[in-house]
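Fill in residues.
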């Protein structure tokens, strides 16, 4: 148990700077895009594009998360049912918290008229194909690409940042683009939405699934390259 907590603590500390950078870049991109749309006088079209963008980013997030979680489990256990099961639950649930549950709660705390949009319930056929592709690619990625989770986890953090921020803007919270005092609170919401759920999906769930002997001697973050005997 102490060993697992040590690994988890190292992972959380390691991924916080990447989460901060990804969240900041996502905020700049969405703000720039929003300002262009508002100056063009097309706020309605902009809102529709934000919803469309979320329905691209969220399934993509699920896919990348499934790749990472499945690949980590497969790297250490080589048990297909276990890898697929943990890849399934380790992507759908944390991605849901990251992309709409935490942004919804964060927006409400900041006094915004947020709408809760649970994509896996309202649009399951958008999510499921990406999930299946992610599970399959997680197995193939680990087999074909050495330390492939380095790349998939990096993409996971960035896409998650974009999805959480786009959800905020698409479902009730656009005021931060005109009020500079709201920029930092929004950044905190996005960082929290990305940092905790993504680490749960990519790290906590795989570590919980692995036996102690698989973690023995593992000193580097799971999503980094590690030398295998």
């Amino acid at each position: 148990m102490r060993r697992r907590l040590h690994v988890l603590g190292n992972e959380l500390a390691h991924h916080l700077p990447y989460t901060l950078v990804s969240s900041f870049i996502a905020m700049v991109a969405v703000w720039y895009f929003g300002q262009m749309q508002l100056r063009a006088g097309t706020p309605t079209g902009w809102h529709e594009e934000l919803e469309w963008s979320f329905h691209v980013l969220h399934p993509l997030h699920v896919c990348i998360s499934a790749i990472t979680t499945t690949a980590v489990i497969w790297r250490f256990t080589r048990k297909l049912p276990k890898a697929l099961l943990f890849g399934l639950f380790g992507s759908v649930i944390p991605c849901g918290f990251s992309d709409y549950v935490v942004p919804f709660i964060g927006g409400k705390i900041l006094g915004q008229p947020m709408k809760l949009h649970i994509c896996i319930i309202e649009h399951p056929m958008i999510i499921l194909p990406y999930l299946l592709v992610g599970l399959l690619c997680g197995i193939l990625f680990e087999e074909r690409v050495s330390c492939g989770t380095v790349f998939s986890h990096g993409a996971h953090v960035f896409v998650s940042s974009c999805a959480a921020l786009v959800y905020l803007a698409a479902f009730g919270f656009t005021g931060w683009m005109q009020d500079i005092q709201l920029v930092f609170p929004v950044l905190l919401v996005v960082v929290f939405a990305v940092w905790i759920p993504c680490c749960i999906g990519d790290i906590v769930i795989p570590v919980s699934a692995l036996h102690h002997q698989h973690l023995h001697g593992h000193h580097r973050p799971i999503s980094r390259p590690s030398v295998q005997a």
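Residues 2-215 form one domain.
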